[in-house]
Amino acid sequence: MSEVIVVTSGKGGVGKTTTSANIGTGLAILGKRTVMIDTDIGLRNLDVVMGLENRIVYNLVDVVEGNCRMKQALIRDKRYPNLYLLPSAQTRDKSAVNPEQMRKLVEDLQGDFDYILLDCPAGIEQGYKNAVAGADRALVVTTPEVSAIRDADRIIGLLDAGQMKSIHLIVNRVRQDMVRRGDMMSVDDVMDILAVPLIGAIPDDEAIVISTNQGEPLAGTDTPAGQAFLDICRRLLGEDVPLTLPNVSFGLFGRLTNLLRRA
Amino acid sequence: MEHIRSASPYRKCSGEVAAKRLRFLLAADRSGFPPETLAMLREDICRVISRYLDVDASQMEVRIRRPVGRNAEDRLYAGDLPALCAVIPLKSFRLKGIC
Fold it and tell me: Which of A18, A38, B6, B75 is most buried as measured by Cβ atoms within 10 A of its Cβ?
């Protein structure tokens, strides 16, 4: 049986798709057969972040409507032998699929993969309901900002009410330098406010922007964010990985101290 | 240059401000009670109690707690029904009008 994980957040722009891409990649690196499903119908993004946009023939809606077989729509990522993507449709809208169809789609993939990762759209409407329908566990992504945390709390409430079996928190774009001078909520603050167990924190790392530009996920690479994502994957597999937040500094002085620290 | 407001170097740490704002905001969100109604309720309670005791209204806290809350604070209340919980600090430990 595969484990079905939904990556969600409520608010848009906090890094759901980047997180999905990197966790999917990380799980594949760790040898798990993984399929990522982009459930954001009408606003397709995961394919671009993964650098697989030129290989799409069929999409999720085609599978649901029976225009093609599942195997035809799945894109195999040639860089990682265990990794597959089921892209979303760009020219349709959320109402093209309902939660029941989504549950069935996930069921059809069950035997073939260790992990099924659902990238959820922003918002709490139809798209959200579709994405969480077939999931066993949820990863809620937030950033240390008031608006993102407020929306995360709302999503956690909805997941609770929907009897989601396991809910974990990912705090994205943490800047330890700002936390240290008191101008950003710490990961502990966020955990305390949301009262949900943490599965990882991702430092704000410019390598993320570069990786998205290139369409190459950075999980597992020698970057602070790349390591943080791989740590999350290890925790998903049940390993006990201590939480460390590397100090990603900006500016010349920060880069120098980072260099010195690495040397 | 007048329209440029200077960020005072002595301002309060903004991370702390954010955490405090969120705690209030989420208390209202989670209770499902509109914040304006809660504020009105708070004022009414304050007025009634002030007849008897010297209340510090600025420190007063009123919120609805759910029976199965996710927060440690929510769990302090062990009943089966949601509860209205108020913390009302007193300026002095004396009944008004007596002694």
Answer: A38
From A148, A141, A146, select the one nearest A171 (Cα to Cα): A141
Interface contact B76, partner A, CB < 8 A:
no
Residues 34-63 of B with CB under 8 A from A: none
- The predicted-structure confidence for A85-119, as pLDDT tens digits, reads as follows 999 999 999 999 999 999 999 999 999 999 999 99
* CB within 8 Å: A183 and B23: no
Q: A183-212: per-residue pLDDT in tens? A: 999 999 999 999 999 999 999 999 999 999
Residue A192: give the domain boundaries.
3-262
Q: What is the rounded CA–CA span in Å between residue A219 and residue A216?
A: 9
Return the number of CB contacts < 8 Å for A and B: 46
What are the extents of the domains in chain B?
35-93
* Banded model confidence at residue B99, pLDDT cuts 50, 70, 90: very low
Q: Strands, E, within A45-188: which ranges?
A: 75-76, 83-86, 115-119, 137-142, 166-174
- The rounded distance, in Å, linking the Cα atoms of A21 and A15 is 10
**Tokens 């302090």, residue?**
B76
Number of domains in chain A: 1
- Give the CATH number for residue A218: 3.40.50.300
Q: ipTM of this model?
A: 0.81
